[in-house]
Amino acid sequence: MIRFYNVTKVYPNGVKALTDITLSVNQGEFVFVVGPSGAGKTTLLRLICREEFPTRGQVIFNGKNLARLSSKEIALLRRQIGMVFQDFRLLPRKTVFENVALALEIAGVSGREIRKRVPAVLARVGLLAKARCFPYQLSGGEQQRVSLARALVNRPCLVMADEPTGNLDAESARELVRLLLEINREGTVVLMATHARDIVSTLQKRVIALDAGCLVTYDFQGSCQYGT
User: Fold this and answer.
1) Mind listing the pLDDT tens digit for each residue in 141-197?
2) Is 154 within 8 Å of 144 (Cβ atoms)?
3) In whole angstroms, what is the distance from residue 85 CA to residue 148 CA?
4) Is pTM beyond 0.85 here?
5) Which whole-number Å values give the CA distances from 179 to 26, 148, 164, in the listed order?
6) How crowded is residue 133: how many other Cβ atoms within 10 Å of its Cβ?
7) Where are the chain's structural domains?
């Protein structure tokens, strides 16, 4: 599904975020991307959704070289990818329903379909009763579940979560991870960048570890060592 071939990313200020990365993520996988701050985790995710270009090498998504996509194809790519962020990124003046519906409105989905899909996905994350609430009326865990609902409402084949438990208490983090596992069991690929070693060790999923932009671990063991 995702292939990196000798990918290097150097920013205009000279910072080398990734160096000669070759890896793959296959259909149906749940993969952790781990490493210390500045290791290149977020850059890796941004390359997959075409928010960044590799300086060298190729990023392939479902057989397509992302560097060669047209503007229309980029829009279609992003509808296949659901993003969950550490800081939730909810619009404060929109209700829970409106925050989730926005992803469908941008995609040009009809109002009738929006009224069908949004309640269904909110029910899935346990927030249907909060549909008319605003973000400030929700706990951090609830806000992150709204973010997850927004990521899922376009029915993506890939969900990428960038430090999604970083601002959550332990119970909320466990609930979010439970939902991600459930989604993965249904066939959606999950790529989760995290510092949460306890989650990585407990779940025993495949781990890709980065350090200073280099691939230092690429295995199926569920355990990792930073800075090796």
Assistant:
1) 999 999 999 999 999 999 999 999 999 999 999 999 999 999 999 999 999 999 888
2) no
3) 9
4) yes
5) 20, 9, 12
6) 15
7) 91-154
Structure tokens at 84: 């969950």
Can you give the pLDDT at residue 217? 64
pLDDT of residue 63: 94
122-131 CB contacts, 8 Å cutoff, 24+ apart: 122/96, 122/97, 122/146, 122/149, 124/149, 124/152, 124/179, 125/149, 125/152, 125/179, 127/96, 130/96, 131/95, 131/96, 131/97
Pull the structure tokens for residue 194: 């995290």
| Residue where the block lists tokens 């909320």 | 172
DSSP 91: -
Alpha carbon distance 78, 127 (integer Å): 25
Q: Which helix (H) or strand (E) holds 58?
A: strand 56-61
